[in-house]
Specification:
The chain is an all-alpha fold. It contains ten helices and no strands. The protein is globular and about 75 Å long. The mean pLDDT is 87.
């Protein structure tokens, strides 16, 4: 029902935009950004070859390695330890107003000449939250009882997620503000797309690697099987 409703909303709104929105033909840009796909890619390669852009791309490709495991694996580990998926999904609901308000607040601090200062300040706190998430996973089985989990456990999880959202959005808004600030206005769209794509890639590949490494790095013990390490899926099944 949820997917059907929002699918209908998307279809209606995009159709209305296509039918009702008209281009303003009176205003013509002083210079065309690009003439076609080939020119666009030539432009992208010329941008990325610039030393400052290349250095920045390397930085944002590796900046999120430190908290990739905490971001990608924590929720899965909590479910593995017995926290119901629907309870974790419900905890995401109070995060929605926070996610709307946070960019408005943070944008005041990223509007100045050095938007990346907010990024730098948020990073150590986000790294510390990774340790806090690790503690949360360790603590989860210790507070579990027959009826599930106590209310105070969910309060701690909710506060942890809220703090995580603050650091996440501080870094996200700061990097977006910086990308907008350094992009050449004449080729703003192409410039912004390149930097934002690299930024997104910098968040996705560490999470993928973290998820891939979960099984090899997880230490398991088999009850009742003395000579089995349970290091592989087959061994665990045996």
């Amino acid at each position: 029902d949820f997917l059907f409703f929002w699918g209908a909303v998307f279809l209606i709104t995009t159709t209305l935009v296509a039918l009702l929105k008209k281009e303003n033909k009176e205003l013509t840009p002083t210079k065309e950004e690009t003439k076609g796909i080939t020119d666009t890619y030539r432009l992208l390669f010329s941008i990325i070859k610039m030393p400052a852009v290349l250095t920045f791309c390397l930085l944002i490709l590796t900046a999120k390695v430190g908290f990739s495991a905490a971001d990608a694996v924590t929720g899965l580990k909590l479910v593995e330890e017995g926290v119901p998926k629907e309870h974790l999904a419900l905890l995401a609901v109070p995060m929605v107003p926070l996610q709307i308000i946070l960019p408005l607040i943070i944008s005041k601090y990223t509007a100045g000449p050095q938007p990346l200062n907010t990024f730098y300040k948020a990073m150590p706190f986000r790294l510390l939250l990774g340790l806090e998430f690790a503690f949360l996973v360790w603590w989860t089985p210790k507070v579990k009882h027959e009826g599930g989990f106590p209310v105070y456990y969910y309060v701690v999880v909710l506060l942890s997620y809220a703090l995580h959202q603050i650091t996440l959005y501080s870094m996200y808004v700061a990097i977006m503000a910086f990308n907008a600030k350094v992009s050449d206005p004449l080729i703003g769209g192409t410039y912004m797309t390149l930097l934002n794509t690299v930024s997104n890639l910098g968040g996705n590949w560490p999470s993928t690697v973290a998820l891939w490494l979960v099984d090899p790095l997880t230490v398991k013990e088999c009850a009742g099987a003395q000579e089995q390490t349970c290091g592989t899926t087959v061994a665990a099944e045996v």
